[in-house]
Design a protein that fits this description.
6 copies of one chain form a homohexamer. Chain A is 66% helix and 0% strand. Chain A is mainly α. The first copy, chain A, is elongated. At the A-F interface, helix 4, helix 5 and helix 6 of A face helix 4, helix 5 and helix 6 of F.
């Protein structure tokens, strides 16, 4: 197996093209991102992942911008370079302002800090949080 | 050094009491959580951490509930048991509904999945995300 | 200390050369990977790490391809760019097919997702798993 | 929102019961694990997660035991207590021997170690891994 | 929001310049690192983060070199590329020798390995560690 | 495979007893910790891990206390409960004072925070760090 190559629309199977078409229609894009072009090497995972993302990111009790902020918070915590770039763009498209980005980063940073303080001090869970 | 013990208000120094008082006033609590009682073993870190959290979590371009959801998303990603318990409670107090919690978890789970798919497929960043 | 430089065979000490020779012989390579050339800055760690990897990755109750898949699963989860590249190559050399890679990624992605769902829902361990 | 409670079969909606029935049938179990009972608080995520897991863990180019080993490798790397317990049990049920478990742990440990050595020494990717 | 740009001293607000001046004075640098130039997009986080780092990294019960080694250990564990580069440089400036770096990496690698062995074998905490 | 059980000295093979004896002699302990009793289920990994830990933690360019602090920093970052407990005890035995513990935690927390700020702001590495 050599390095994985992206699959462009013109080279995709019918199954891949159907997913790409749905991504483009749903997100009003001219072309899909590299993420989907690479996943297209496995049409089954491409289709399952897209359908899951589509369901999870649809407007619901949380609005789409909040969902994008959460996606970015996780990606930053995990240090996934591709995901940080793509979800920063997605959040911006969903309306994230520079000030909202700044506050998001501040919260993510602080949570990562206090997570470790709680670990290190071995803080037991307060009974009030268990009821 | 034996196992760290929590410091109760009555046993705290003036510096510790001042922080505890501010936490209780700001959050309208009768007592502070275990997290702060353990941090009180280091009054300097207690004071700095509280003042940072207070600044970061104050209403701003993002509302307090959204900030709590982000805090919880990070804590779940990191697997910090204490933090998941305490920030689930904090988010609920800030108004998180069961449906919002469910959607938060769905987004956090999906982001953790696609972060690894992007890593594993070694997806290069789209030029459009760099401009 | 300036940036660490790789140590080539011709510049290595007798201890370094002995390890490089064993790596090349064991893995039937013309030259060792960058990983070993950088570790060669610390011959003690080079030797210990190689001997550990050699022992751990030898055929046993698990065959070498399965061990490479597991190595890759960990590297993808941790987001180690070098390790993903080198162990993708190693797995391919050990016989991993594109379909096996695709299934590996699907499992790794799903495990990272459900790990966080279990964390976030604070699921207690079933008694049946403890016996 | 108080602490999340598991949902038993008798208390589940038709949608929840249908998923539980499919899990029990597919895995030949008398009852579903706590993981599914907690996820049942969000029937949409329950259904999507189960269908995804079912697809991903089905026999394919990798056999079910190998898939369980990979799942466990990820769970151990992430330190998810529930997942380690449940997937240790699942792997044992799929035929994992104590010797295979021991080798799995040895590989997971070594991969976590060398991932950090590669990070710390800032090892550049070998050109051979990019072709 | 387009990609974030660094803010140079000449373009900074009075608040940003004051922080940059304090960093340069404290660390005896001609210019601040990129980290601070990017954080300057959010002067409040810039100021808070610098003041926190300054307090935390000051000589105390641990000397500055030991603190830098710890910072680097965390950054390597998390796989933060920027942080590994900047804190390797900072540790070298604080006096870290190549041999100390080598031993640091060896400890970090081993800790990451045994952390996972402890997870995977589900080792219970010894009563002696709880007293 | 049922849940893994610890192996006591009296039940160990000659190979296991030899490792236990060396641990007790080296660390001047009456009995080994649970970690080693669980690893004893795989005598090969037990022996390799102990010999690696013994080599890595021996006095060198870094003194034993500093090495223990680094071990604890990694364990806290990873959230390994067993490791935090055992290495807190080991660090205390090596002379860690409460004030040193407090400073260690402050550095670990801050590093985890700034790692994510660097990730999120996508800070490029300064050319000065590459020379």
């Amino acid at each position: 197996m050599s390095t994985i190559k992206p699959i462009e629309y013109r080279d995709g199977s019918a199954k891949v093209r159907a997913v790409f078409d749905d991504i483009k229609r749903t997100r009003q894009l001219e072309d899909v991102n590299n993420f989907w072009k690479y996943l297209a090497n496995d049409p089954t995972t491409l289709k399952r992942t897209w359908e899951s993302v589509k369901q999870v990111m649809a407007p619901g009790a949380l609005d789409p911008l909040v969902k994008e902020l959460i996606y970015l918070a996780v990606s930053v915590t995990n240090g996934c370079g591709y995901c940080i770039a793509s979800h920063s763009a997605a959040a911006a498209k969903a309306g994230m302002t520079p000030q909202q980005f700044a506050e998001l980063m501040a919260v993510v940073g602080m949570a990562n800090e206090t997570n470790r303080l709680a670990n290190g001090y071995r803080v037991p869970i307060d009974p009030a949080f268990e009821s």
